[in-house]
Amino acid sequence: YVQVRYNRLLETNPSLKSEHDKSIGDKTGFLIRRARLVFSGNVHERVFIYIQPDLASTPSGSSTIHFAQLRDAYFDLSLDKKKEFRLRVGQSKVPYGFENMQSSQNRLTLDRNDALNSAVPNERDLGVFFYWAPDKIRKRFSYLVSNGLKGSGDYGVFGLGIYNGQTANKPEANNNQHVVARFSYPLALKSGQIIEPGIQAYNGSYTVTPDQLSSNKIFGGTFNDRRVAGSLVVYPQPFGFQTEYNIGKGPQYDPETLSIQLKTLKGGYAQAMYLLKVKDQILIPFVKAQYYEGGKKTELDARYSKTYETEIGVEWQPIPAFELATQYTITNRTTKDGRALNNHQFGNLLRLQAQFNF
Amino acid sequence: YVQVRYNRLLETNPSLKSEHDKSIGDKTGFLIRRARLVFSGNVHERVFIYIQPDLASTPSGSSTIHFAQLRDAYFDLSLDKKKEFRLRVGQSKVPYGFENMQSSQNRLTLDRNDALNSAVPNERDLGVFFYWAPDKIRKRFSYLVSNGLKGSGDYGVFGLGIYNGQTANKPEANNNQHVVARFSYPLALKSGQIIEPGIQAYNGSYTVTPDQLSSNKIFGGTFNDRRVAGSLVVYPQPFGFQTEYNIGKGPQYDPETLSIQLKTLKGGYAQAMYLLKVKDQILIPFVKAQYYEGGKKTELDARYSKTYETEIGVEWQPIPAFELATQYTITNRTTKDGRALNNHQFGNLLRLQAQFNF
Amino acid sequence: YVQVRYNRLLETNPSLKSEHDKSIGDKTGFLIRRARLVFSGNVHERVFIYIQPDLASTPSGSSTIHFAQLRDAYFDLSLDKKKEFRLRVGQSKVPYGFENMQSSQNRLTLDRNDALNSAVPNERDLGVFFYWAPDKIRKRFSYLVSNGLKGSGDYGVFGLGIYNGQTANKPEANNNQHVVARFSYPLALKSGQIIEPGIQAYNGSYTVTPDQLSSNKIFGGTFNDRRVAGSLVVYPQPFGFQTEYNIGKGPQYDPETLSIQLKTLKGGYAQAMYLLKVKDQILIPFVKAQYYEGGKKTELDARYSKTYETEIGVEWQPIPAFELATQYTITNRTTKDGRALNNHQFGNLLRLQAQFNF
Description:
Three copies of one chain form a homotrimer. By secondary structure, chain A is mainly beta. Chain A has one domain: Porin, CATH 2.40.160. Chain A has helices spanning 98-101, 114-117, 135-146, and strands spanning 2-9, 31-35, 39-44, 47-57, 67-78, 85-93, 124-132, 158-163, 178-184, 187-188, 194-208, 221-234, 239-254, 259-274, 276-278, 281-295, 304-319, 322-336, 343-356. In chain A, β3 and β4 form a beta hairpin. The first copy, chain A, is globular and about 55 Å long. Chains in contact: A-B, A-C, B-C. Chain A binds chain C through residues 39, 41, 43-44, 46-47, 49, 51, 53, 57, 59-62, 67-70, 73, 75, 77, 89-91, 126-128, 163-164, 168-175, 177, 207, 209, 211, and chain C through 2, 4, 8, 14, 22-23, 26-32, 35, 37, 53, 55-56, 58-59, 61-68, 319-322, 354, 356-358.
C-alpha cells in the first residue's frame, strides 16, 4: 500500500514538528509516508515467508530520499500441522501493544500513539519470536482484519520473544538481548461483540549510540529499558473503543544535569470510533486523546518528551482500493534535548492522507 | 529494463564530464545506467497503481552504489468510467516537455536534452496531477508507443499539476508548491502521418539547499523558478522530426558576484530520425543538435551551464528484448560554479549502450 | 533466500572480528546476513535476465541498515540456438574460483575462504563476460545444483571476461579494465562419481580509493592486481572433497614503511564433507581448514591479513525450505593497517545460521 500526505492546512504553528511525520511544519509539502510492497507465501506446508520493503526510506546522512529498506523479513516455522505453535525468525514486529501490531493500513489515526510506540519505534526488531494461538482464535484474528474491524492480525494469544533491542534496521550495540512477553485474547460475546483485553511487558538493555548524540559533551551508553502495558479493544460493531497505557523506565535526557539518565516514563491513549456503512462505502469517524511523558530512546540524546494531543477525524473508504483520511489535530508538545533545552510548541492543523491498497 | 553503457571509445578529452552519465570521462568504465523493475496493475476498475524502483541509484554521501530508489510511485484514480479524467497522486513525471515524458527505454539519444530536462531533472516530483484525454486520443497515445514510434505515453491532452518542486526524491524545502500546465495533441493526418504540437509552462519556488553549495561563502535560498516551452513532434513513419524550445528564469551561479542570482535561461534541440525495418529487425539512424544557456538549479551552486552538442547515432533492435545503441557525440560545454569559475571543455566521444527490455 | 545468524555462543575472544560477518565479536547479536529476492526469466528465446537485490545492505556512511542493493543485474545473450555460447552483460559473478561461483545458499561453511574470496569480495563486478559449455555439460552443471550436490551453477567450461575491477557496487576508479579467464570441467567417472578440476587467472589495475584510507598520511593509488588459482572438487556422492589455492600480487599495507605497497599473496583451503540422507532429511557434516597471507585490497589501507582457520560443522535440512547450519570455528587472525599496526586475535566460537529457501 501507499500513503501520500499533505499536512499544511489550517496550520497555526509552523514550528510544530513530529518525529512520526516529517511533513508537519515549516518548509514541507507533499510526502510519501509509506510505499510498501509485500512478497509473501507458503514455500512449504510448514514455512511461510514475509518480506516487506518500504520504498520511502532515507539512509542516515543522506539528503536524497525514497530508498528501499526492509520493514519485515521473517519466516514462520510451524511446529505443528495446525500451525498453532509457530517460531518467527528474522526482523518482525515486537509483540508490545495492540496499536503497534495493527498495520498502518488499518489504523484510523495517521500516526501511532507516542506512549506505546516509543517502546519500539518502527514496531520491529531482529530476533526469534514464539507465538501460540488455538486454531479457532487464529480464525478470529483473521476475521477481525478481513471484515474491516481494524484488527491487529495474528500475533498469538501468547507471544514470547528474544531480540536485539536497538529497534529495526539498527545494528545491535550491546551484549544483551531484549525479552518480551504478551498475552491477548479476543473474547466473542453472545451479542456478537468482540472484546480483546491484553497485557505485555519487556526488559532489556538499550544503548544510546554516538550518532544519536547532539555533541561530544553528552555521553551515551547502555541503559536498562523496561516497560509493562495493558490494552483493551472493543471492536467497532458498529461502536468501538480502544485504550492502552504503559509505564516503565528507560534512558531520558535530563536538562538539569545536561546528561542522559535512567528515568521513569508513563502514558497512554483512549480512542472511540463508529463504523458506518453507506451502500458500498465505509465511513469511520473517530476521536483519540493521548498523553506521554518520558524519554524517546532512539531520538537525539534520548530526548525528553511530554505530549498532550487530541485527534478528531474521519476515514472514508469509497472503494476498497482507495481511502481518504482527514483529521484535525490539537497538540501540545514539550521536548528537551542537548540542542533545544526546552522546546514547547502548541498548535492545531488539518491533515490529509490518500491511501491506496493493493 | 536495464541499460549498460561504455563511453570511453574514441574519446578526445577525458576532462569532459556529464551530469547525465557518470561514466563519461577520466577514470570510468562500464556503467549500469538504469536497472528498473515495474510493479503495476489495476487494483480496482478505477484505480491503477505504478511503482518503479531503480536499482542503480546512490544515496548522497555514499561511496557504494546500486541501491534501490523510487522513480515512480503513483496511483491513477479515474473520475469517470471511460478513464478520460484522471487524478494521479504520488511521485510521477511532471508534464513538462515531450522528451521528458518519453521513457528512456524509447528515447533514441542516450541522454535527454539539457534545455528542457534542466527544468525537472529525473523528470519527476511529488504531488497531485490531473490529466484529461478523450478515449480516442488515449488509444492514439498508446498506439504511438506500442508500434515502436517512440511516443511519450499518455500524459493527457491537457494536464494540470501541483507539486513540491524540489525534484524527485528530495524533501520539500519551502512553503510554496509548483504549478504546471500542459496541452499536447497528436493530430492524425489523412496521409496516416501523426504530428503532435504541444505547449507547457510551470511556475514555483525552488530552494537551493545547503548540501548543494560549494562552500559556506555562498548562500542558497529560495528563488522564483518558471519556464514556458513549445514542442513539435513528427512521428517516424518512416521519417521523423522532433524539436522543443524553452525560456524561463531560475537560480544561476554568477561568477562576477560569486553568488547565486535569479537569471534568465533559454535553449532547445532539434532531432531528425528515420525508422528502417529490415525483416524483423529495426534500425533507426538519428541526428540531434542541442543548445542550452542558463542555470542548473539542482546542481552545485545552481551551476551556470552553456552547452552546444551534436549527436549522430543509430539504434539497432535485432530482437524486441535487446537493443544496441551507438552514438558519436561532439560536445562543447562551459560550466561555472564556486569550485570551477570557468570550466570550458570541448571534445568528441563514441558511446555504446546495450539495453534489455522486459 | 534469507539467512539469519547468531554467533555469540561459546565465544572465547570478543575482540575477534570478521569482515565477512559483522555479527561476530563484541556488542553484536542477531544478524540478517542475506535477504535476497530474484527476478529472472527468459524474455526472449535468446535473452535471459537475472536481477537479484539484497535487502540487508548498508550504504557507506549510514548508521541505519537493511537497504536494498543490487547483487546481480545481468543478461545472457545466447549466440546460438543451443545456448552453448553466451555473452553475459551487466553486474555478475567474476569467474574466479569454484567457491566464489557457488551460491551462499549452497555453500556449507557460513563464510567463503579468505584466500580466493579476497580476489573478488562480493564475488561480482560490472562488465562483459563470455561463457561456453557444451549442451551435455550444461545439463551436468545444472544436475549438480538441483540434486543437492552443492555445485557452482553454469559458469561455462570456458569463461572470459572484461570488467571494471573495483568489485561490485563500486564505481570504476581508473582507466584500466580487468581481464579474467577460467577453465573448469566436471568429469563423470564410470562409478558415477563427478570430479571437477579447474584453473583460472585474472590481471588488472585496482585503485585504493581515498574513502578506504585510515588517515591522510597514507596514500592510495593504482596498483597491479593479478592472481592465478587451481581448484579441485570431488562432489559428495556421498563423500566429497574440495580444495583451492591461489597466488598473486596486489596492494597490501606495509607496517614498516606505513604505506601501501605491491606485494605477493598466497593461500587456499581444503574441505571434506559427507552427504547423509535420513528418510527425507539431509545431514552434511563437514570440516574445512584455510590459510591466507596477503593484502585485502578493498579494506582499510588494503589491510595485511594472515589467517589460519578450522571450521567443523554440520548442515541439517529437515525440509527443503529450511536449513539449520552450525559450525565451531577455531581461528587465528593477524591484521595490520594504519589504525591497528599489529592486531593478533585468537579464539573459538560456535555459530548458528537459519536459512530459508524460496
